[in-house]
Specification:
heterodimer; A: alpha/beta; Purple Acid Phosphatase, chain A, domain 2; six-stranded mixed sheet; five-stranded mixed sheet; 8 helices; globular; B: mainly alpha; 6 helices; 45% helix; 0% strand; elongated
Chain lengths: 293, 141
């Protein structure tokens, strides 16, 4: 009887250990490959890229040449260039969509401010799909978030939805968040941030590993925190400067000698343990290979 | 008596060994025995924060400056997706209620800040806009 009292105390103590103290089995992940594409800005006309459709085509050709082939593509916003009229915007969404569908590879998108800020994502929802949603591939959880359609934040309503969805998933499964703007203050004066990012990431506090894939900044930058890694993709339209000071964000004219400079996409291989290997494909490299073969 | 002491001894020892590693519910009431460093006490404000122009100025830098500019004259660091600039917030007709409504609900490409800002924060921003639109004293006429 005395022994039992001692034992039950031990059991109560051990039964409440925080997750992860003891070895845990990794949940069934089937290794797979996917592509991170971003900021295609279809419809843009100007000096920063004189043929945005052409650079997207090149990117899609590079994707088609991948071996093994990717199972799907994620596109983190600014699919189209904003325009004053709905008719023009609609045509740009249609053009983007038909190019993507032409690959025969499934694709998942999130909106960028060019796609959704002017009408709070109304047209985007008709032309592309929901502004935020969740899906699962090969044992990896994906949360596609909208941090642009009402301003650079996720906002109360969407955060409530997120809090509900989070309860439905396994916090030990690798988790990827897709969003257009970074979920940290990268550079606030250029709107390279999400106002309520901390509140959003706090919802994932008990998750074992969270990776945020974002776009918006048109260059490779990343941030590593204990449980969260954030990584930007490349644009297929034009590169942007890194923040240097309190100056207005401007893009520069496309180089005549190196028109594909800074453009590309990223290929992500998810391994059986949920690890991710990221490879960057630069369109300028692809062109050099073309020339030499 | 000895039986009781013995049982207490077993329980106390168990806690002493496992408790600090486990941070457990059962040991919760006694956790302060195991803690190395004191936890700072939460600061409880005496009253809810009042709206202020200082809070407004701070919020403005983080939420508004990119589009409306550091001086509020519409010369921001970021162009709207259409390539245009956000309007100047100087030279507005003083109307705190209507400003707060615009800030909260948004309009066109002006964000709907009510999704992330509370009433006190909206009031503070209105106070800050006021300071950009001086004088707000009633004209003598």
């Amino acid at each position: 009887m005395r022994g039992a009292a001692g034992l039950s105390a031990v059991a109560a103590v051990l039964g409440d250990l925080p997750r992860g103290v003891f070895a845990q089995k990794s949940s069934g992940i089937t290794p797979f490959r996917f592509v991170h594409l971003s900021d295609t800005h279809i419809g843009y006309e100007g000096d920063a890229n004189r043929d945005v459709a052409g650079t997207l085509d090149r990117s899609l050709m590079a994707i088609a040449a991948l071996n093994p082939a990717p199972e799907f593509i994620v596109v983190t916003g600014d699919l189209t260039q904003a325009a004053e009229t709905t008719t023009v915007r609609k045509a740009r969404f249609v053009a983007f969509r038909s190019k993507m569908e032409g690959t025969g590879i499934p694709f998942y998108c999130v909106p960028g401010e060019h796609d959704a800020l002017m009408d709070r994502g109304e047209l985007y929802q008709k032309a592309i799909g929901p502004l935020h949603y969740r899906f699962e591939r090969g044992g990896v959880q994906f949360f596609a978030l909208d941090n642009v359609s009402r301003g650079f934040f996720v906002g109360d309503e969407q955060r409530q939805w997120l809090a509900q969805e989070i309860h439905k998933v396994d916090p030990n499964a690798p988790t990827i968040i897709l969003a257009h703007a970074p979920l940290y203050d990268l550079f606030v004066p250029w709107n390279w941030y999400t106002y309520d990012a901390q509140q959003v990431l706090a919802l994932f506090q008990h998750f074992r590993s969270v990776t945020v894939l974002f776009g918006h900044i048109h260059q490779l930058m990343s941030r590593r925190q204990p449980h969260v890694i954030q990584a930007a993709g490349l644009s297929t339209a034009w590169p942007l400067p890194e923040p240097v000071g309190l100056e207005k964000l401007e893009k520069w004219p496309q180089s005549a000698s190196d028109p594909l400079m800074g453009l590309g996409l990223r290929v992500i291989d998810v391994g059986a343990s949920g690890d991710m290997a990221v490879n960057t494909v630069l369109l300028s490299d692809e062109r050099r290979e073309e020339a030499s073969s | 008596m000895r039986k009781v002491l013995w049982v207490l001894g077993v329980v106390a020892l168990t806690w002493a060994f496992v408790g600090p590693r486990a941070h457990v519910a059962l040991a919760q009431p006694f956790q302060h025995f195991f803690r190395r460093s004191p936890t700072p006490k939460p600061h409880v404000p005496a009253k809810p924060p009042a709206p202020s122009v200082v809070l407004g100025a701070r919020l403005y830098v983080r939420a508004c400056e990119s589009c409306h500019g550091p001086k509020g004259n519409g010369e921001g660091f970021w162009s709207l997706p259409t390539g245009k600039n956000a309007p100047a917030l100087t030279g507005l007709t003083p109307n705190a209620a209507s400003w707060m409504q615009t800030i909260r609900d948004g309009r066109g490409m002006m964000p709907a800040w009510g999704q992330v800002l509370n009433h006190t924060e909206l009031q503070s921003l209105a106070l800050y806009l006021n300071s950009l639109n001086k004088p707000l004293v009633k004209s003598p006429s």
